[in-house]
Amino acid sequence: MPGDESLxxxxxxxxxxxxxxxxxxxxxxxWEWSPQVQQMHGYEPGTVTPTTELVLSHKHPDDYAQVSTTxxxxxxxxxxxxxxxxxxxxxxxxxxxxxVGDQLYDEHGAVVGTHGFYVDVTPNPGVTDDMVSAAVxxxxxxxxxxxxAKGMLMLIYRVGPDAAFDLLKWRSQETNxxxxxxxxxxIADFTGLDYQETLPSRSTFDHLLLTAxxxxxxxxxRAGVS
Length: 226
Hints:
Distance between the termini: 16 Å
Largest sheet: 5 strands, antiparallel
Strand content: 15-25%
Shape: globular
Number of strands: 5
Oligomer: single chain
Strand order of the largest sheet: 2-1-5-4-3
Helix content: 40-55%
Number of helices: 9
């Protein structure tokens, strides 16, 4: 229905402040933060140039060693990663964040860094959750798919429903793939994994999440689906 299509585009077109991207280049220790990640750390967009020292300076003292060790492992192994820890912004507020990174390649196919996203999962009741929930309910034929994808993200990354929806919506916006189509692709990817009683490693899910858009066609539809 046209109304539902417009509503889905409006939902996918937002810019949730709780989700943003980052890039880290190994050779020169160069970082890039999206405006949303700068805001998570308490900076106005465009007013800070992140460095490794600055990144680590915002980590909660109790989580500093964990993050520092993870960063060193990434430099050494060049593998995908995901971590959940706390950061302290410039105003002294504590944020609980999930950070997921995948391999960053140059034009020759060599791994030159890591890139991915931050999602702020700090409880923040009453922002626009009721409005978002009401809007999603109107997309009747798409709701089940979106809710299923949200449930998978909640289970894998141990986040709440609002953070999971923000994450799904952000990936839709960043990759220009419709929310429903991206949800369908993630469901197909996750349920298509071959495993027995033990779930695959977190890095397997990280990679699928960050590359799901590549398995849809140029029109933002699932490959092979009209």
